[in-house]
Design a protein that fits this description.
By secondary structure, the protein is an alpha/beta fold. The chain has helices at 10-22, 37-45, 63-70, 101-124, 150-163, 180-183, 193-201, 207-212, 238-251, 280-288, 300-308, 310-316, 334-342, 357-366, 370-373, 378-390, and strands at 2-7, 28-33, 51-55, 74-78, 94-95, 137-142, 168-173, 186-187, 215-218, 221-224, 254-259, 291-297, 321-328, 349-354, 404-406, 429-430, 435-437. Helix content is 37%, strand content 18%. The strands form 3 sheets. The protein has a 9-stranded mixed beta sheet, with helices on both faces. Strands 2-1-3-4-5 form a 5-stranded parallel beta sheet, with helices on both faces. Strands 8-17-16 form a 3-stranded mixed beta sheet. Helix 5 crosses helix 16 (378-390). The termini are far apart.
Length: 441
């Protein structure tokens, strides 16, 4: 006997319960009729069902909640024949509410059998690691609290990748302080990441749709803006974001993702695994990335904050760890910084960048990248070398060890002007210089 939890509208619920009661012999029985999604999730979490039959129009239902249901039971969806959407939220078995009861029983039985088979397969075979054959690389850029320059470095690494002729996608996944659109002077900021997550949640996101949600900043460089206001963080849920990142592999050779600093789980909600987590976007992104670039400022406070996050980073399982020490200059000692970090963190590479705040401020006020405003500065050249060494498209990754790039601090080269934008439907320069208007597509 298969125990089923039913969550459907009143009329459909009554018909299904009545028709099941008339079946003989009975192989499926309704053990709970739930009024909403929260009740359904609670029953499944308590182990009270083998399968769930749920209306896909139930308020709050999305891929995240489907994933939670699938963790405890097989799931069969009900979708009205009048529904103009084609979404099935990733479910294999979806029927109309007025389908014959025999079809529903058959779908439930098959779903339960398939779930049992999947669980056995998972127990016997480890999940394969993602490879470059799956698409482009995902590169996370993270740093401890205290504004070490994470967003500036993420932006300019993406610019260097694009300048080398590779397709780059810059994703603002910072749900605490999204800033990439403003730093690039993008006018008419689009929903970006939030819209992509909603589309993924409704099973309508593919590479073409994701590309349409981006802004073409310059040739080969696209931006997926963030959520705008930090209060919108619940719009970016774990399962949806993971799907967006997977599709991003199909859009670009390299996706550079700006990640918020906080990695802790909400202790007040730790007992409730179904509640949305404030830092879920950062944790999910780091776990999904092929490599992680950690940005830390060249001062004792920032370095200490990084070292204290070592165990947390290892828990999230970043595959490769590359450290960039930013704003290196007197009185910071480069050799001492290398020793502090390389002997305490399992880093793949360690790079030092000079302190050039004036150049960064000028680029920020102009809404531009260093490759446009300060192409000959040591800071920009250092970023170009890092992009070439750390983020290859092919498998020619650096050899193991801790190679160190260090550029002596130097003043900005103010003789270099901002070059004209080269083609693309992307942006139009408006006053003040460097401001960009969003173009569709």
């Amino acid at each position: 006997m298969i125990d089923v939890v039913l969550c459907a509208s009143g009329r459909d619920e009554v018909r299904i319960v009545h028709d099941l009661a008339q079946m003989s012999p009975a192989t499926v029985r309704i053990v709970r009729r739930c009024a909403d999604l929260a009740e359904t999730l609670a029953v499944v979490a308590a182990g009270g069902a083998d399968a769930v039959v749920i209306d896909l129009d139930v308020r709050g239902l999305g891929r995240d909640r489907i994933s939670d249901l699938l963790a405890g039971a097989a799931v069969v969806g009900l979708r009205s024949s009048e529904d103009t959407t084609t979404t099935s939220l990733g479910l294999t078995h979806v029927l109309t509410p007025d389908a014959p009861i025999g079809d529903l029983v058959e779908a439930v039985s098959i779903a339960v059998q398939e779930r049992s088979g999947v669980r056995e397969a998972v127990a016997q075979h480890a999940t394969p690691e993602p490879s470059l054959a799956d698409g482009g690389r995902l590169v996370g850029v993270w740093g401890p609290t205290g504004a070490p320059g994470r967003t500036t470095i993420a932006l300019n690494l993406a610019a260097e990748i694009a300048a080398a002729g590779r397709e780059a996608l810059l994703i603002d996944a910072d749900t605490c302080g999204p800033a990439l659109a403003q730093m690039l002077g993008v006018l008419d900021e689009s929903p970006g990441l939030a819209a992509a997550c909603r589309a993924r949640d409704r099973d309508t996101l593919d590479a073409e749709v994701l590309r349409g949600l981006t802004d073409l900043i310059r040739p080969h460089l696209r931006l997926l803006p963030g959520i705008g206001a930090p209060s919108r963080w619940p719009h970016v849920q774990e399962e949806s974001l993971r799907g967006v990142l997977q599709i991003a592999r199909q859009v670009a050779d390299v996706s550079i993702i700006d990640i918020a600093a906080l990695l802790e789980e909400d202790e007040d909600l730790s007992y409730d695994t179904l509640a949305p987590q404030r830092n879920a976007a950062a944790i999910t992104t780091i776990g999904a990335c092929d490599l992680l670039i950690v940005v830390v400022a060249a001062d004792p406070v920032s370095i200490t904050r990084l070292l204290r996050q070592r165990s947390r980073l290892q828990e999230i399982s970043a595959r490769e760890l590359h450290v960039i020490v930013n704003r290196v200059g007197p009185p910071a000692d480069a050799a001492r910084i290398r020793e502090l970090i390389a002997t305490r963190l399992p880093v793949r590479t360690l790079h030092l960048l000079p302190d050039d705040s004036a150049t960064c401020r000028r680029a920020l006020w102009e809404g531009a990248m260093l490759i446009e405003t300060a192409a000959r500065t040591p800071l920009r050249r250092g970023l170009a070398r890092i992009a070439e060494a750390v983020i290859p498209v092919q498998d020619n990754v650096p050899e193991a060890g801790v190679p160190v790039e260090h550029t002596e601090p130097s003043g900005p080269d103010r003789s270099v002007g901002r070059p004209e934008m080269a083609g693309g439907r992307s942006v139009q320069i408006a006053a003040p210089p460097g401001r960009r208007r969003r173009a569709a597509g």
